[in-house]
């Protein structure tokens, strides 16, 4: 049977679905996949440093300039993949666990989203802890109320994943009857280790332009997720 047809049947048969997503889902919205473009930042600093807690603390101006000029795409819109996943969430108990920090799953209307690496569109003040609008952060990283420093609630190099994100992800995978891996090479740990928490009997499908590798059986659909999700 055709793999796309197998995917459709698996989706029809499952009530609780976990979708694990990565940068490939946001590329059609005009957001580049930084990992595949390391050369872009060749120069004085590497992107791992520029996105590190060390950089934020020791060179906050360098961090601010890099993050606001390279990571924010406030005009980006959800694409067909985001909207199809949100529509699926209207009919089934879908939990999306994403590595993306662009907020586009939520913008598409998905209700159950775990931003595993945080979100650029949730900002807060390091000093007083108050939430801040991303628009305010994009104007200045100084908190008007207290003079403290604003930052996005994203997981930087050197920082740990939030306990709530880890626990929520594990619970969702333990309950899932079907797991989809979409638009990710699935190599970044601990995100890629989440798959170990799924039920043995829950089938896994991966949709990605490049093949991915798992230590357990799964169905690989090597294609553009836009084509695969078009008729879901
Ligand atoms: Zn403050």
TrEMBL record:
Gene3D superfamilies: SIR2/SIRT2 'Small Domain, TPP-binding domain. SUPFAM superfamilies: DHS-like NAD/FAD-binding domain. It comes from the Bacteria. Residues 1-232 form the Deacetylase sirtuin-type domain. Zn(2+) binds at residues 125, 128, 143, 146. Its EC number is 2.3.1.286. The keyword Zinc applies. NCBIfam families: PRK00481.1-1 (NF001752). This is protein acetyllysine N-acetyltransferase.
